[in-house]
Specification:
Layout (H helix, E strand, L loop, with lengths): L4 E7 L2 E7 L1 H13 L4 H11 L6 H16 L4
Antiparallel strand pairs: 1-2
Helix pairs in contact: 1-3
Length: 75
Amino acid sequence: MSRPVKRSLTLAGHRTSVSLEEEFWQAFREIAVERGLSPARLATEIDRDRGLEMGLATAIRLFVLRDYRHRLGLE
């Protein structure tokens, strides 16, 4: 797995950055495309639902993992 790379996003009109490994970023982008959303829009939805106890990068990784598990019928 690669090292995290910092990427900039605009969430609800505010610039932020998130550090994700390339594998997670690619999976996240693929999920966004499948849902007809931009990565920034999907990140905004994840950000809105994540709560204060979790960082955005962690929330995105867990979102990708849940999507993967759902596809495999594990959830």
